[in-house]
Design brief:
Distance between the termini: 57 Å
Number of domains: 2
Helix content: 10-25%
Largest sheet: 9 strands, mixed
Shape: globular
Number of helices: 14
CATH superfamily of the largest domain: Fumarylacetoacetase-like, C-terminal domain
Radius of gyration: 27 Å
CATH class of the largest domain: Alpha Beta
CATH architecture of the largest domain: Alpha-Beta Complex
């Protein structure tokens, strides 16, 4: 099929009435609009994607079921690109030539299953009817990709109104990027993301999505939400579940979800304490394993770089209490450096199990703590101290025994480079952001920062991976080659499951 040909509608299956034919692939992007990224509080550096099954496609006028026992079915109005000519390794300058048509889509998602899918969205976004597309195809060659308008209505009220000018990643970049990994074939669909305004819908709600450019319009894509009656079977798969994080992201905000406002960082830190069981798990788990699990969840900037332990054999586990230094300026040092300054207040206020994390901008040209403050922190039951600045009285600090990570030793006092400024706020330490209450774990490899909401699942998965790696190491020690074993192929996986499951 070429762009000069009129698209042939699929007559044999009404689900695909809004498309030339049943698509071979549906590729959806995660975060792509500036407004949505602002709402979520995270902005991706590069696009990331997931697949949706073609069986999820539905035509305008169809219904979508909210499964029994679930609460968080959310709409996402999107612009759909339909490939008109095959694309493989195309440049951004040529990418739009491979888009045949543009239309409206609704990327429904069931947040009750989102955590179970861990980013794949296989079940949370793959259900029957979860991808309505249509009703009319607009010829891409007649459109300017940077000026498309997207609107969504719920029960007649405008819920989303944005344009492709608000995209983080232009449409042509998505096409070019995907084409460098696999061939985009005729009829494939790219769902280009949703702006702010996506929220939860309930049975009886009617959602409409329209894509337009000047007078050209896809028409309104209409979907009605209905209540499903079939239950999920716990004997064959994981069950739906929700928490406040999923409710917040599904509704768009804590307020919309009917949840109380987030506490301030200081309040949150004061309320967070690691349970003995969770602390014990973290003490068993190497930082490298925690880092790998956070990376799987898209968190790469979570290591405090440039710091080394005074006691490499001692594990550091605790929650962050933060302290910020600013560069020395003589008048500010005079007004803020003496008396009961922020540094002294932080060390006096530290609680049992907390880690004092100090922002010193990587400046190691003076000490940021000495033996007296180390003694004070240790006496208060602090779990440790992390600073991306220097340590004064290094040997005396080491003798205290409290875990300390720093950028090195320096004999100069604080005021040579720093002014103690404030406490209990979001800081930068060793190139990463640290908030009060963040979970801090350190060993000989370094120090990592774990968001509190993720720590339980991250440590469990990391320990499971450690068990797997230990089993693999034992097989390698027996003389088996690593090929097929690390990572495990199907044969080795079956053996591992049989042996481990039998214990």
């Amino acid at each position: 099929m070429t762009l000069d040909e009129t698209p042939l509608r699929s007559s044999e299956d009404a689900r695909f009435a809004g498309l030339p034919a049943r698509p071979g692939k549906i590729i959806a992007i995660h975060l792509s609009y500036e407004s949505r990224a602002g709402q979520r509080g995270r902005r991706p550096a590069f696009p990331s994607y997931f697949f949706k099954p073609s069986s999820s496609v539905a035509a305008s006028g169809s219904t979508v079921e909210r499964p029994a026992g679930t609460e968080l079915l959310a709409f996402e109005g999107e612009i759909a690109l339909v490939i008109g000519t095959a694309a493989r390794r195309v440049a951004t300058s040529k990418a739009w030539q491979h888009v045949g048509w543009v239309t409206a889509a609704n990327d429904f998602g069931l947040y009750d299953l989102r955590a179970n899918d861990k980013g794949s969205n296989v079940r949370s976004k793959g259900g029957d009817g979860y991808t309505p597309i249509g009703p009319q195809l607009l010829e891409a060659r007649r459109l300017a990709p940077a000026t498309l308008r997207l609107r969504t209505w719920v029960n007649g009220s405008l819920a989303q109104d944005d344009s492709t000018a608000g995209l983080i990643f232009p449409l042509v970049q998505m096409v070019a990027d995907l084409s460098q990994h696999f061939t985009l074939e005729v009829g494939d669909v790219i769902l280009t993301g949703t702006p702010a305004g996506s929220s939860v819908v309930v049975p009886g709600d009617v959602v409409e999505v329209e894509v337009s450019s000047g007078a050209a319009s896809s028409g309104r894509l209409v979907t009605t939400v209905v209540q499903g009656s079939d239950d999920f079977d716990p004997a064959v798969g994981s069950m739906p579940s929700t928490d406040d994080t999923q409710r917040t992201e599904a509704w768009g905000s804590r307020e919309a979800a009917g949840l109380p406002a987030e506490p301030s960082p200081a309040t949150a830190a004061a309320s967070l304490r690691l349970s003995p069981d969770l602390r014990a798990k973290l003490e068993r788990c190497p930082v490298a394993g925690l880092s790998a699990q956070l990376r799987k969840r898209g968190l790469n900037n979570v290591t405090i770089d440039g710091v080394r332990p005074l006691h490499p054999a001692v594990k550091l586990v605790g929650t962050a209490k933060t302290l910020r230094f600013v560069p020395n300026r003589e008048d500010l040092l005079a007004s803020h450096g003496g008396g009961y300054n922020a540094q002294k207040r932080a060390f006096d206020a530290v609680s049992e199990g907390e880690v004092i994390v100090i922002e010193a901008r990587g400046e190691s040209g003076s000490g940021t703590l000495g033996d007296i403050l180390a003694i004070r922190a240790n006496a208060a039951g602090a779990a440790g101290i992390v600073t991306d600045g220097g340590v004064r009285d290094r040997d005396a600090v080491a003798a205290v025994g409290i875990p300390v990570y720093s950028s090195g030793a320096h004999p100069a006092v604080l005021g040579r480079r720093h002014v103690p400024w404030d406490v209990d706020l979001t800081i930068a330490c060793g190139g990463t952001t640290v908030q009060p209450g963040d979970v801090i774990v350190g060993d000989a490899d370094g120090v990592i920062v774990i968001p509190p909401a993720l720590v339980a699942e991250v440590v469990d998965d990391a320990l499971a991976q450690e068990d797997e790696d230990a089993w693999i190491a034992a097989r390698v020690a027996e003389g088996h080659p690593v090929d097929g074993l690390f990572p495990m192929n199907a044969e080795w996986r079956a053996r591992f499951d049989a042996e481990v499951g039998a214990k």
